[in-house]
Specification:
Largest sheet: 5 strands, antiparallel
Helix content: under 10%
Distance between the termini: 174 Å
Strand order of the largest sheet: 39-38-37-36-40
CATH architecture of the largest domain: Sandwich
Number of domains: 6
Strand content: over 45%
Shape: rod-shaped
Structural class: mainly beta
CATH class of the largest domain: Mainly Beta
Number of helices: 2
Length: 455
């Protein structure tokens, strides 16, 4: 019983399927019109009655008889529309030719007259209007002699004008030079470029040596590193070369004053003076001061010599004995020196220079002698001479007691290595006491004690 039910169910389903298929076939035979669409260029997108049917060439089936709207679109082309009337049972072929869309490109450059290439092809010089570029991506190259070329990517989507303005950069550098003062000579890498103020263009990029010179001023030097298109402004303040003044004096070592300011002793070179007038004065003890005005010009080297006139005199003195200390106006001025023994007891002359004109007080001293004082008159540029003999002031400073009971006093002359004592018992009377005869000896003054210990 159950098997019969299943068999009936299966047969019913089969009959239903056959009926549905026959109905579909019948409907196709009634409304199944066919349309083939081809485009030039191919692969345009095809729409039928607003419904996309794919890329041409394409076959659209199962269309109802009657009018239909076919539309073809493709990037870079104008879309095209066509009304098609379909007849039952008659396949229809439609061929559509699309018109290419060209963009508008307006190219300006600064500076003008630049060469333009589009996709490697020469198109002319700026300003330039290009009307035949198809929709899509393009590469423009804009170049001009003396400038760096510029490449620009552009994309054309429709007829809307594309505007390009290219600012071209110089492939060299420019230097604007001014100086204070003006009129200085300018050289770049050793090549003369005129005088300031000046503008120097077309300078090769890289390191550039700039030198600015003007007579009387220290040269200005600077190394610049310039890049393409760079405009370097250089303002130079030139420094004056100081004047040089050399001062000499006869005799040397005069004190030199410039505008009452002490600058040193001659010979002297002063190299930091600005141009102008100066008062120069030379002073030296024992000489009349001398002063004069000098005018120094820009970067000048001037030598001035001062021959100083003496306003003093010389005092020359010899003494007997020698080794006498000489004082002039209370100031020690020297000690007379002994001559060779065979030349006598007088000293060598002692010369005392730079004594002012007029009267001076002289004092002579030597131990064991009476001091001597006197006045001298010094004349300008003359030598005053004098010989002075000192009187002996005999003061015993040493005592010796002999084995015979004698007490001998005098001025100690020497204690010999053998122990003998030599005394000056009276002026120019000398006595030698043998060591074997000495019972005791002693100094009477500190000076004699020191002299005895040294011997």
């Amino acid at each position: 019983m159950r098997g019969n039910v299943l068999t009936k169910t299966f047969l019913a389903a089969a009959l239903l399927l056959c009926w549905s298929h026959s109905r579909v076939v019948a409907q196709d035979n009634v409304s199944g019109c066919q349309l083939r669409v081809e485009t030039d260029p191919p692969e345009a997108t095809v729409l039928c009655d607003g419904v996309s049917k794919g890329a041409a060439p394409v076959v659209v089936s199962n269309l109802r008889p009657g009018d239909h709207l076919v539309l073809a679109t493709k990037q870079g082309y104008k879309e095209i529309r066509r009304s098609v009337s379909l007849v039952q049972g008659q396949p229809t072929l439609v061929k559509l030719t699309l018109e290419r869309v060209y963009g508008l490109v307006l190219i300006h450059s600064e500076p003008t007259e630049a060469d333009v290439q589009i996709n490697g092809a020469d198109r002319g010089k700026t300003p330039l209007l290009i009307t035949d570029l198809p929709v899509g991506k393009h590469r423009a190259r804009i170049s001009r002699p003396g400038h760096l070329p510029k490449e620009i990517d552009l994309e054309i989507t429709d007829r809307t004008p594309v505007k390009i303005k290219a600012l071209l950069t110089s492939d060299s550098a420019t230097c604007v030079l001014t100086s204070e003062p003006e009129g200085a000579k300018v050289t770049l890498n050793g090549i003369s470029k005129g005088t300031t103020p000046c503008t120097i263009d077309q300078i090769p990029v890289g390191n550039v040596a700039v030198e600015v010179t003007l007579d009387g001023y220290a040269p200005f030097k600077q190394n610049l590193k310039l890049a393409a298109g760079q405009k370097e402004e250089l303002k130079v303040v030139l420094k004056t070369i100081p004047c040089e003044l050399s001062v000499e004096s006869i005799p040397p070592e005069a004190r030199i004053y410039v505008d009452n300011q002490f600058r040193g002793e001659a010979p002297l070179t002063i190299s930091d003076l600005a141009p102008g007038k100066y008062r120069i004065r030379a002073e030296l003890k024992g000489y009349e001061p001398d002063a004069r005005d000098v005018e120094l010009k820009q970067a000048q080297k001037l030598v001035e010599e001062f021959r100083l006139a003496r306003d003093c005199g010389i005092f020359e003195i010899s003494t007997e004995p020698a080794e006498v200390t000489v004082f002039v106006d209370g100031q020690q001025s020297g000690i007379t020196k002994a001559k060779a023994p065979e030349e006598g007891t007088a000293s060598e002359p002692l010369s005392i220079d730079l004594l002012s004109v007029g009267q001076h007080q002289v004092k002579l001293t030597r131990k064991g002698y009476f001091d001597s004082s006197f006045k001298i008159e010094i004349a300008k540029a003359k030598t005053t001479t004098r010989h002075e003999t000192l009187k002996r002031n005999f003061i015993p400073d040493y005592e010796v007691r002999t084995t015979k009971g004698e007490i001998i006093q005098g001025v100690l002359v020497e204690v010999t290595p053998a122990g003998n004592v030599i005394l000056e018992t009276r002026p120019r009377i000398f006595q030698t006491i043998d060591f074997k005869d000495i019972r005791a000896r002693r100094p009477l003054t500190k000076e004699a004690d020191k002299k005895s210990s040294q011997q």
